[in-house]
């Protein structure tokens, strides 16, 4: 089980590395060739369509959980019904999204946003295309959930990675050729169509018993999934309120161009969140499978030590991103964005607090509990909208980002109050493992690096930035292994490596 989690997590990180590199290349190229507003329109079209993710109802995570659970029980007919019911549901949602976007465009709903007259007709065409793409993007969610349920993360991530590389490369090529913005947008999202067909074919190979058949679509199956996922739906609504609402607020109260700046300022913040989330995401189906086999000891291990090592994974990234934020922003998009470095650093440091319980939340969901995490998430999302709307009037773009951080600060303590008791876990013990034994030693080492911050800021090449990044990464992870890693687990790791490679490690 542990090897499967490690393999799936590694696969997630390889994909994320590919996506990071693609974004690093694509964002400055697209901004330079289509302008801040043009790039903002491309982003905002996906954001507006993304608002319909509230219609997901949490089915995607419920699908993953129940596919993992019933596969472990060898109930293949139930697995088939779960996937096909979800696939049909998502196709229906895709039709709703398409119809809604068409109505918004036809009735000039885009007038609500600060889009220049020069780009208004182009924006209408792009939003229409975004609606059509929903017909492929939504059913694809079901197939991706099925791949996660059978824990074939490497196959899933390979398809996503290849599809994204193709789409971004094509979009960059078209942008360099001064192609109309509509074609660039379509190229940028071409993987949504390609992966729909490719993933379907691959899923039939990995699940030879499965094909889409209307006869296996069942209301009872949907009710079973929704009984679990209904509360997760609140978490997905919260994601919309926490992040997509930020861009909605900027588009309506500042400008569509501000979305491009927001994307740059929040890049490292979201990078850390994704690093954290990818490490935790492979755990949920594994916990569901373990719970189905009544292996409570393994679940308890996930809760305490999994959370500790999850923090051990992302905290060094936070420290490095804090110190290298200024040279990274300058090298990536130019000096004009360095005025936001302080905001980048504040948001990066905040992830120490916000992501500390991310792993715990996935374990909690995997054992079949979702109500309280959903309520906490929706509280955070509503708080973010309120604070962002309030602060944007005073601080503009900075106010929107600060609102998101403050909302997160309010929600994190609720995990200790409401979640830990359900897991029969001592709050003091959990706090000790996460903060006293893990975060504080790493932060102390990070403070020792502060005298070097001036040298870090003077880095003037990508080669130098990557070299410093790697040195700091080795230093922080080496420190973690020597001084923070549990001795018993270290011994098991050494023994496992020695056995595998036939020599002493």
UniProtKB/TrEMBL annotation:
Membrane-crossing segments per the record: 12-32, 38-59, 87-106, 126-143, 155-177, 224-243, 249-272, 309-325, 337-354, 375-395, 401-419, 440-456, 462-484
Membrane topology: Multi-pass membrane protein
Transmembrane helix keyword on record: yes
GO CC entries: plasma membrane
UniProt subcellular location: Cell membrane
Transmembrane is among the record's keywords: yes
Record-linked InterPro entries: Poly_Biosynth_Transport, Polysacc_synth
Entry keywords, A to Z: Cell membrane, Membrane, Transmembrane, Transmembrane helix
Record-given protein name: Oligosaccharide flippase family protein
Organism: Sulfurovum indicum
């Amino acid at each position: 089980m542990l090897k499967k989690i490690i393999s799936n997590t590694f696969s997630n990180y390889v994909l994320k590395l590919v996506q990071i590199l693609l974004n690093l290349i694509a964002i400055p190229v697209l901004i330079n060739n289509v302008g801040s507003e043009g790039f903002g329109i491309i982003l905002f079209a996906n954001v507006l369509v993304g608002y319909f993710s509230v219609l997901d109802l949490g089915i995607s995570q419920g699908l993953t959980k129940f596919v993992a659970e019933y596969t472990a029980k060898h109930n293949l007919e139930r697995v088939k019904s779960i996937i096909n019911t979800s696939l049909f549901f998502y196709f229906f949602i895709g039709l709703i999204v398409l119809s809604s976007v068409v109505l918004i465009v036809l009735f000039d709903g885009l007038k609500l946003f600060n889009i220049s007259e020069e780009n208004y007709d182009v924006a209408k065409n792009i939003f229409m295309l975004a609606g059509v793409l929903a017909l492929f993007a939504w059913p694809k969610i079901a197939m991706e959930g099925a791949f996660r349920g059978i824990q074939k993360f490497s196959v899933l991530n390979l398809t996503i990675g290849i599809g994204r590389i193709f789409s971004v490369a094509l979009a960059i090529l078209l942008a360099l050729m001064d192609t109309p913005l509509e074609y660039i947008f379509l190229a940028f999202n071409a993987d949504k169509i390609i992966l729909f067909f490719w993933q379907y074919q691959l899923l039939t190979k990995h699940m030879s018993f499965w094909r889409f058949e209307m006869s296996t679509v069942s209301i009872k199956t949907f009710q079973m999934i929704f009984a679990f996922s209904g509360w997760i739906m609140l978490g997905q609504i919260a994601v919309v309120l926490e992040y997509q609402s930020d861009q909605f607020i900027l588009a309506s109260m500042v400008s569509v161009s501000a979305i491009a700046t927001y994307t740059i300022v929040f890049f490292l913040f979201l990078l850390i969140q994704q690093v954290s989330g990818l490490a935790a995401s492979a755990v949920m189906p594994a916990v569901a499978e373990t719970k189905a086999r009544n292996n409570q000891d393994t679940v308890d291990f996930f809760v305490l030590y999994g959370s500790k090592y999850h923090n051990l994974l992302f905290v060094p990234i936070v420290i490095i991103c804090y110190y290298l934020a200024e040279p990274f922003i300058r090298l990536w998009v130019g000096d004009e964005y360095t005025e936001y470095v302080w905001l980048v650093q504040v948001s990066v440091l905040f992830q120490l607090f916000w992501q500390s319980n991310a792993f715990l939340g996935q374990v909690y969901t995997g054992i079949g509990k979702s109500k309280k995490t959903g309520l906490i998430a929706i509280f955070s999302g509503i708080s973010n909208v309120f604070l962002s709307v309030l602060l944007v009037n005073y601080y503009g773009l900075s106010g929107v980002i600060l609102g998101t951080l403050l909302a997160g600060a309010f929600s994190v303590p609720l995990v200790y109050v409401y979640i830990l008791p359900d897991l029969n876990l001592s709050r003091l013990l959990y706090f000790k493992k996460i903060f006293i034994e893990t975060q504080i030693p790493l932060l102390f080492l990070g403070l020792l690096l502060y005298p070097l911050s001036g040298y870090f800021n003077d880095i003037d090449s990508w080669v130098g930035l990557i070299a410093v990044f790697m040195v700091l990464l080795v230093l922080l992870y080496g420190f973690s292994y020597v001084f923070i890693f549990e001795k018993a687990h270290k011994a098991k790791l050494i023994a496992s490596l020695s056995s595998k490679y036939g020599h002493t490690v």
